[in-house]
Specification:
The chain is of the alpha/beta class. It has three domains: 46 residues, no CATH class; 271 residues, Spore Coat Polysaccharide Biosynthesis Protein SpsA, Chain A (Alpha-Beta Complex); 65 residues. Strands 1, 2, 3, 5, 6, 7, 8 and 9 form an eight-stranded mixed sheet that branches. Strands 4-10 form a two-stranded antiparallel sheet. Helix 5 packs antiparallel against helix 6. The structure holds 2-acetamido-2-deoxy-beta-D-glucopyranose. 2-acetamido-2-deoxy-beta-D-glucopyranose (NAG) binds next to loops. One of its GO terms (biological process) is protein N-linked glycosylation. One of its GO terms (molecular function) is alpha-1,6-mannosyltransferase activity. Belongs to the glycosyltransferase 32 family.
Length: 462
């Protein structure tokens, strides 16, 4: 009690300064409060560097955001990293994919768990284009109108990938492209991601054919069915603008609106496809470097190189196993994707030049002797009389019909074989429920036999 009174007496000396209204318990705790306040001050001082960095980061991001939105501020610096996003476009969304497409698409998601994955479909593509290119986006209604008017699916698909890459960037891959390696491996370690705006691969490198009337324009190209971009690249917008000009000119030439354009194979390739893409990329590299960048920069390159901010990978990276252009094979370490080509049914919708007797020169697959023979034969054909020409065409058609009949007979045989095998399999499954593993070895060898038969069948169809 003495002590307590003593404390009270001494505290009463400064009590008037606090107005005398503080309850005694708070008065006793004051030193603790002061300590806590000092401690909080210390903490916030110690942490003050982090919030400063965060503010800077947010500011930087919004600058980048504006860069994408403002069509005229394209010259700004790209973000240091490629967006971790995989894009595909297809008729339907991935939950409805058939097995073949699902298997292929999963190679991307499974190898790249850190990436987001999105498929634009025939039902939501226009919404995407309107959102990002309409008045609420970068306000390029001309682009929206052309996209809306287009009916040629392949042109739309080409255009859409460029639009998406311009707005958001990331990696685009056709639906029939399989990932062989994680995307992190697409940029070799010797490069700094901050120095690269775009990653592309050589697909066709056959400059010797440059003078050929049919093969020439397609003899040197980068592929545009798999490529990677940072958002807002001027090359993507220029490509889109070139396509708009091309479509409008074609519309004038054919005297029909864009929605009614008829396009052949070569027009698609040169207008929106690989040739258009290649020309736009080379033009952009030339602008960046201040001199004309030509194809020879990428002819026979032993390894990847960066030109004007574009990382160009060797043929093997995206287009292995073509049997031309020194494309190597899919088992190589540097083979990054595998194009299965099952989605490219569009050549039938957009016919390419097919000689009535000697067929398509593309079937030569860039074999020099084969192309020479085709050129020689077709030139010879041109020198024939109408009568001789007709005779050759009739002979050719007869040979084709005979081959078709053979193929059909073979297909029926194969069908019967498959039915028999399925029946046998069903019988074995019933019996096998008892015996289990023991019955596994025979179907495996039978399956191999069937695979070989299917293989030779498809070869015959070619
Ligand atoms: C969009 O562009 C058009 C001209 O093409 C202009 O008239 C309109 O005001 C613009 N709208 C916005 C929201 O910027």
């Amino acid at each position: 009690m003495e002590k307590f009174h003593g404390f009270k007496a001494s505290s009463s000396n400064w009590k008037p300064n606090l107005g005398g209204r503080l309850p005694r318990q708070i008065q006793r705790a004051l030193p603790i409060y002061a300590g806590v306040i000092l401690f909080i001050l210390f903490l916030s001082y110690g942490n003050s560097f982090t919030p400063k960095f965060e503010v800077a980061h947010v500011k930087k991001r919004s600058v980048n955001g504006q860069k994408v939105l403002g069509a005229d501020s394209l010259a700004q610096k790209s973000p240091t990293r490629f967006p971790k996003k995989i894009w595909q476009t297809w008729k339907i969304d991935p939950l409805g994919f058939e097995d073949r497409d699902l298997t292929c698409a999963r190679t991307w998601t499974q190898k790249n768990p850190g990436h987001r994955y999105e498929v634009l479909t025939d039902n939501n593509d226009l919404y995407y284009v309107e959102t990002h290119f309409g008045p609420e986006g970068i306000n390029r209604s001309d682009i929206v109108e052309v996209y809306k008017a287009l009916t040629a699916k392949i042109i739309k698909a080409d255009l859409l990938r460029y639009l998406v890459m311009y707005i958001e960037g990331g990696i685009y891959a056709d639906i029939d492209v399989e990932a062989l390696k994680p995307i992190d491996r697409f940029i070799p370690e010797r490069y700094n991601e901050g120095d690269i705006d775009m990653v592309i691969g050589v697909e066709i490198d056959q400059p010797d054919f440059i003078a050929h009337p049919i093969l020439g324009p397609k003899s040197m190209s980068f592929c545009q069915w798999t490529f990677m971009c940072k958002p807002g690249l001027p090359v993507m917008m220029r490509l889109v603008e070139n396509i708009m000009i091309w479509l409008n000119e074609l519309s004038k030439k054919q005297g029909v609106p864009i929605s009614d354009l008829k396009l052949d194979f070569d027009e698609v390739i040169s207008g929106t496809g690989p040739s258009a893409f290649t020309a736009a990329v080379l033009a952009e590299m030339s602008i960046k470097n201040g001199y004309e960048v030509k194809w020879d920069t990428f002819h026979n390159i032993p390894e990847s190189k960066v030109v004007g901010g574009v990382l160009v990978l060797t043929v093997e990276a995206f287009a292995a196993g073509q049997g031309h252009s020194d494309s190597g094979n899919h088992n190589a370490r540097t083979a990054l994707v595998k194009h299965r080509y099952h989605a490219s049914k569009w050549p039938t919708a957009h016919p390419r030049y097919k000689h009535p007797v000697y067929g398509e020169v593309e079937k030569c697959n860039w074999e020099v002797e084969c192309v020479k023979m085709w050129d020689y034969n077709t030139a010879l054909f041109d020198g024939l009389t109408e009568e001789e020409k007709q005779k050759l065409i009739i002979e050719k058609n007869q040979a084709d019909m005979q081959k078709q009949a053979e193929d059909e007979a073979f297909a029926r045989k194969l069908e019967a074989y498959e039915a028999a095998r399925a029946a046998q399999e069903a019988g074995r499954t019933l019996a096998g429920q008892e015996t289990g593993v023991a019955s596994m070895s025979r179907p495996a060898s039978q399956f191999l036999g069937l695979a070989a038969a299917t293989d030779s069948f498809s070869k015959r169809l070619e």
